Amino acid sequence: MKRISEGRTLSSRISEALALSLALVLMLSLLSCGSGSSGNNSSSNTTTTAGSSLTSSQASRIQAMVTNRTNNPNYENVPGMVMGIKKDNNTAWYGTAGYSDNSTLTPIRYTDKFRIGSISKTFTATVVLQLAQEGKLSLSDNVTKWLPTVASALTNYNLGSITIKNLLNHTSGIHTYTDFTDSIFIAAYSDPYRIFTSSEVMSVINSHSPDFTVGTNWEYSNSNYYLLGLIIEAASGDTYENQVQKRILTPLGMTSTEVPFAGNPYISGSYAHGYMYNSLTGKMIERTVSDPSYPFASGSIVSNIPDLLTWMQALYSGTLLNSTYHALETTYVNLNDYGMGNYYYGLGIMVEGDYSIIGHRGQIFAYDCSIQHYITRDYDLAVCVNRSLFDEDVVNYSNTNALILYDTLTVLASDNTTKPETKTPVKRSNVRTPLTEY
Predict the structure, then answer these.
(1) Over pLDDT 90: what percentage of the chain?
(2) Which of 94, 167, 177, 256 is most buried when burial is the number of CB atoms within 10 A of its CB?
(3) Is the pTM of this model over 0.70?
(4) What's the CA gap between 264 and 115, in Å, rounded?
(5) 390 contact partners, CB below 8 Å, separation of at least 6
(6) Domain at 22-437, CATH class
(7) What is the pLDDT of residues 349-406, one digit of tens each?
(8) Where are the domains positioned within the chain?
(9) What's the chain look like in SS3?
């Protein structure tokens, strides 16, 4: 099933495109974010506590961190933050601070939606694995089998030697199409209403040579998951968006999560307005609107914190997969073998060994999110902020894990656990780019 036809016109365009320098676009490596919901409508600096997921001491300590790290220049001036924590079948805890809209100073609510960026990859991978367990495709199928037209377009790559599994675990060697310096990235950054065709994306991919010979290395690439979205459509005879809805959102009752189609750059219902840094003015600009055709299956989903907790619990437990394919999902590439530290990447899911967490981060224009399962203590966590954490003005905390989640784990340990020496703020200068993209 084809994506948007080449002749399709934009439903609307912004009246003035942002004329930004390349220095400005040296920010988030597109694709990643999250959201919040459930409980009662919390106002700024309010904690929602119900049930027993957290002790009162844990709740107060974590809420204090959420409050302290919002609208604080020492923590990247994040406008608003929502965090949710759930243990087993206990009632979730939600903490909020800051604003969903800086212009009206509207307090952020835990039910507000966010763009979750590359957390979308966990949904994409699950749909692919479901299709595989149904016998509609095989993880050993090569890409050419399912996308012959794409294979003809990507002449710099031998898609006949690249399998679906290579796409899922980022061992394909296909260069990402979201490089800061690529024209398509600059176009997406400048015009949030622009609709991109798959042909445009393939043209950008083919302008690069392979990063490495398939299977010999690891490199995070949004191109892998864009192609997986196309494979889902080819194998199912349905749209990617419908497949995620039918296979994941509806069965799990995730009513606050949406997979918008190309041409719909808006977020429905109650949402957090997103913000980015403008290097020309030195100020934050709003960037809530964003057409999903650019990230597509690598990062287009919108959700909130309650739904993300539901998803993290299902993802970790393998609710939507049989035991065989859940085991395959958690068959990891050891990134330490490639000089990237104590990280392990499975089929759309990542383990951070130093922290004993499994999940995925998401960064996208104006939003940053993370969902994680704290393995040793059996907690599910989700956190989102409504600003980019990889803008050029970000000094220390280039993702939500570094901003607050790692410190939250120490509180959840319920002892005097000292964070390992490796647990330092994540700076652009000391982190390999791919790890900031996921």
Answers:
(1) 78
(2) 94
(3) yes
(4) 13
(5) 27, 28, 29, 363, 368, 398, 399, 428, 436
(6) alpha beta
(7) 999 999 999 999 999 999 999 999 999 999 999 999 999 998 888 989 999 999 999 9
(8) 22-437
(9) CCCCCCCCCCCCCCCCCCCCCHHHHCCCCCCCECCCCCCCCCCCCCEECCCCCCCHHHHHHHHHHHHHCCCCHHHCCCCEEEEEEEECCCCCEEEEEEEEECCCCEECCCCCEEEEHHHHHHHHHHHHHHHHHCCCCCCCCEHHHHCHHHHHHCCCCCHHHCEHHHHHCCCCCCCCCCCCCCHHHHHHHHCCCCCCCHHHHHHHHHCCCCCCCCCCCCCCCHHHHHHHHHHHHHHHCCCHHHHHHHHHHHHHCCCCCECCCCCCCCCCCCECCCEEEECCCCEEEECCCCCCCCCHHHCCCEEEHHHHHHHHHHHHHCCCCCHHHHHHHCCCEEHHHHCCCCEEECCCCEEECCCCEEEEEEEECCEEEEEEEECCCCEEEEEEECECCCCCCCCCCCCHHHHHHHHHHHHHCCCCCCCCCCCCCCCHHHCCHHHHHC
